[in-house]
Amino acid sequence: MQLRSSWNRLLTLIACCALPARVMAQGATITGTATGEGGAPLVGVTVSIAGMGLGSQTGADGKYSFTVPASRVTGQAVTLNARRVGYLPQNVLVTLTAGTITHDFAMVTTPLQLEQVIVTGAGTSQVRERIGSSISTVDTGQLVRAAQPQNLISALSATTPNVRVNTQSGEPGGSAFVIIRGATSVTGTNQPLIVVDNQPIDNSTISTNGGDGSTVTQNRAADINPNDVESVQVLKGAAASAIYGARASNGVILITTKRGNNGPTRWTISSTQTFDHVIKTFPLQTAFGQGTGGNPGTCTADDCSANSLSWGPALSGKPTFAHGTEIYDTGLTSDNAISVSGGNQRTTFYLSGGITDQLGVMKGPNNRYDRTTVRLSATHQLLNTLTFGGNFSYFNTRGDYVQKGSNTSGLLLGALRTPPDFNNQPFLDPNSGLQRSYRFPHPSPASVTSSRGYDNPFFTLDNPGNRSELGRFLGNIKADWVPTSWLSFSETFGADNYTDSRLESAPLSSSTDPVGFVTRYTINNLEIDHNLTATGSHSFNENIDTRLILGQNLNSRRYRDVYIFGDELIAPTPFAIQNTVSYTPTETKSLRHIAAYFAQAEGDFYNQFHVTAGLRDDGFSTFGSGHRTAVYPKVDAAWTFTQYVNHDYTSGKGWLTNGRLRAAYGETGREPPVYSTISALSSTSLFGSGFQDFIGPKQGGFGGLVTGGNVGNPDLQPERNREGEVGFDVGLFDSRGDFSFTYYNKKSSDVILPAPTNAASTGAQTGLVNGATISNKGIEISANARPYTSQKMDFTIGGNYAKNNGKVLSLLQGVQFIPYNNEGFTGSIGSSTVGYAPGVLRGQDFIRCGYGLSADVDGSGNEVAVDPLCNGAKKGALFIGGPNNRPIVNPDEQVIADPNPKWTAGLNAGFRYDKFQFSTLFDMRRGGQVWDGTRSALDRFGTAEETLVRTSNAGIFGQNVLPNEVVAGPGAGKPAFTTPNAWQTWFTGLGGSASSVQSQFVEDGSFVKWREVSLAYTFDNSYMRDRLGFSNAVIRLAGRNLHTWTKYKGLDPETNLGGAEFLTQGIDFFQNPQTRSFVVSVTLNR
Amino acid sequence: MNRKTIAGLMTAVVFIAACSDNFLTGGELSTDPNRPTQATSQQLFVGIQAATWALLASDPPRVTGLWAQQFKGGNIQYEAAYDYDISEQTTNGFHQSLYLGGGLVDIRKLEGQALAAHDSVFLGQAQVMEALVMGEGASMFGDLTYSHALKNELNAPLDKQLDIYDSVQVVLDAAISNLSKTGPTNFGAADADLAYGGDPAQWIKLAHTLKARFLMHTAEVRPTVYATVLAQSNQGLTSLADNFNAVFTGDANQQNFWYQFDVVQRPGYLLPDPQFIALLTSRNDPRLHQYFNADLSDLADSLIEPNHTQPLVTANENILLGAEAAQRTGDNATALAKLNTARALAGLPAESGITGQALLNEILLEEYIADFQNIEAWNLYKRTCTPNLTPTNPTAAVTGGKVPARFPYDAGERNTNTNIPQLGSQPKRNANDPANATSAGTGAACKGQ
Prior knowledge:
heterodimer; A: mainly beta; 58 strands; about 5% helix; globular; B: 17 helices; 4 strands; about 45% helix
């Protein structure tokens, strides 16, 4: 923007100042040549006189020339300034006299890109050097090389400190959960605002039938094709994102898409083929078969129910089947993209299209995700002062999914619980043609609507009834008007509209609903945004530049969905609503408006001290009527102190080539959920238990209404985050290295939470109130080094490190935690608990030493203090009591797992030799606990490999059962289990998934992941150009997710059951793992 | 005008436009298009009816059935409950549901609306529901918030269990009085009442039976109530047509809970308990195969149909309460006659020539068997230690190795009321139910209390 407006200002001045020729002849003409590396002429260098608004750009020959009119030439000394992105700016004093003044500039590169103009949100942009708050730019080269490049959000993993990404699983169509600097809210998923080309877009993740079962669901920002992305800025702190007010409490990700440029028409064709494999499957035992107590549990009669466990007899030599691996094969993703762009001085265009077809690693055709995108971006300069532009994108996605998770028809739940001696193939009984499973091995034709216990995994894979189809249009129109040299206007008007149609169904004989069901869910969302800014700039003198921006933002978000649940299939297919016996439709609608005004003032002093202050006044229709608007201020300052430390810095040499201190303070907010100020009745409340047996309030033809479980709060205000940050950025050692450090302290108050209200007192379970406070403090460090750079080869290494300490400081008076009942399971339930970051798991633990607990230690029924019996063991040691030498249940619920990591880091390295480019990326996480619910269930069922311990006649806690625990107490070190039946009683009771003590399955989820390694070769010889017509071709081979170093025993410490729909991460319960990929990619450019 | 002024004016115009408050309020912005805010009395009644059915036919009778050893736990959470590995999650939300939508909050709303409309029949029906819900709640949880309920107080105190039972009796008396009134505005729930079609006479009988039931709940600590129990039960349910049932159509969200649990959601979790099968077999009771299927692996098919009508308060229970009360006040003849009436309703031959403790044992066992799939079987066991169950897990921590005698308070209620302690500090037994030293039926030492 800056370069263009300088140019426009110049043209405008010439146009409207219409000076007679003889006056111009007496002015001062300033001319010269700008050169870059090795003395080559450098195009695009802006040479100007600060404060006079005069200047010009160098052309392809490196020459510039402009004239100061005679009326302004008084023999004064002025500063002549030369700038270009990627080069150090240069200033020189010249004296203006009539005639020609020549000055040449030798420009020196700096990789710090301080002069780069970056988008700062809401239509504003600023030179990087002047920004005092923390904004990170993501290297888009890393995006296309990322582990899951199809999902743009997933691709941000390990690229920026404190942008933490969890990808739900390796399945096609899974979501990516991204947290910037820590959760600031205990309701909602704390995802940042995504803005594309100055237009906020929808990034919601809404599953059809619940995140804990059902299928994976995409987050909506994944519709964008990463090949279309030019740059990504992450506004991390409140000062940076205050310009988005009450939508920005979790930061903002600004995406700018590619544009055309003035010049010859260019095109790019690329094709990437990826082969995916499952990295790790769950270790299962193959020594003991179906049954219980050492006795076989199979059956032979028609429609018999066989035993669900694998605690049966030793198999010794009978054929066994690898249930952990037989459901997977190789997945293939094919990503093809083409783009054409070009333009002239007045018009530019960029046209692109892409098709991605992703077939997953599960056997069968029903795990795929296809996306087609088409985009056109164009700008046209109508008048010298007026430019129009438009961006229009259309996305179409189709997915086929497989049921997962806590779902008796889920894939892994059925597969991993199957005893090793049961052959899941064929999945249809040869006689009756109906599903057979290990719990229902001989289905007769009469068993069409009988449950199979747990579905045969191949039957699950064969179910084609889980699909989604989405069509999305994203478009905006921009207008930029620059009527005077000091005033400009910019308008963006955009719309984001999508319709997502889902089908989720269970065929006849499914365990989750043996009579079958069909769910139809259609979501329609329309967001319209208008953003107008007026920018006025003024230079008081040559050393002081100021700018004032005023803005208006109007936004409307309209949401509609219709959900129809059809129960009981009539015929086995089709999976359509009319083919069900009874169906229940519900619909949800909402409309929200925003009217906001913002102002921002910027000052740049002596080219070294920069200050920005801003204010946003947000009015939301979702705020309570008493607090309809909220004001969010910000202030930031940056001081470039390089010249005081290194006087020679313009040459790019010295130990400190750039040094900048910055400090910022800002406030952002978060709106209350829609309609939460309203109390109402409910016609959809369900009555029943956690086992999903429900009836509704409509019975026998009569409709019923009951008081809703949530009481509305008309005084609800938005949440508020107040954040201060300080930091510095330095360039070191002849610009060979750079280092950045930020410390931030963020306090969130008035956090909205569903206060569990006392049902006996209020008749409601929850009401939303402002009341919680959350603190997030941390540091971010990033460092890059370019130890060797030359024409022929260079070597770069970079890393980032971030630490965030999040803590819920208080919820409500007397309330210690808020449970999230749909996130997790009995025994391991998601929650936000005081003293921990939001999103931790709660459950029961065993009695431990050092906490002043008492328990019935000897089975006598009397409770005694436990600590004196611990014999000085360390705090937290597991107490083993008599008479069974076992641990004792502590009935008090507490936090058992904190999935939030202590620190995260990324490391990348690149090496270029001639035309070869090698790069690699590591992703590290320390801390972050995961509850391995899959292992707890498989221990209970006897299929986990660790249950082979049943053959031991000396089961001792701390040694071969719960081996990582330090034990103490009267029973410590003594055998608790001596027979296989005793082991079975343990694992099927207190030692497995039936146990209320799930803390025993919480593990450390620290990992180091080798995310990517790639080798690329660029062909650009003249043969390519002359004969084949492209200027270069790049061939790349890569591997992704090559290895994970972790102590976690489950499939993947990063996987999460609910994806981006759950705030509580760290739940592992029969969802699919990440995949390893090998990639071959060819790109042709012209 | 010069360029600068035009520019300035345009800036001002654009900013002033569209900045009125109307952009943020009105229509779908300020009114929730998804939820109603007013309900008719009939609509409230239908909701209350559904919630009450859930309390009496969803998880509570299943869990109490495990504790009363009519069922055995077959998988995960039910194995844990059967082994007395209970926690706040065992309660499964049924403490809060006493008060939430469809519970006391709406019962009181209905009573208010009925009072305002001068509809005494509706008021009486609502009061019967209130008594049923709170009385059953008191039997499960013990002390509960009642007199201070729904007043938006912070840390509302809990009423003592026996006081709740007393209040319930007062409410039932008011209900009976209201149901007896006639008048032009007395419509009641009419056809929306799926159990009785709105017939006030049936509701009066139900109220008398509930008076008998809840008085009997206090009998262990107030042995003088037996005479009143007898008197009340004589005015209560007498025939199968009098049963208070949950009526399910079998359509989506209108399906019998036992069907939903045992067939759809969690097959295999409930198995017939060997103790119960042995009892039924030894008595040659035909209900063995009415309750369970042919190979005794699951509930009988007729009980797990989606539209199976579920009895919640039965004539059998009422008559047997009367029989027990008669026996305990010395009238063995009446007791025997009532026992035989109840046996006849169940299709069993009459008994003769038994009296005293043996008669009492027969009456109690008969009620235990008749109260299958009902919380009352467990209440009966708690009160009388009959049958003399052997605890399944003598080393269970939470219950001290005894048969569980109450449900833990809901964690959500505990978390929001300082008067409710952590599970470890909650009493193991309710006030109306001190541990029995001996079984009332056989006189032998009680094994499970």
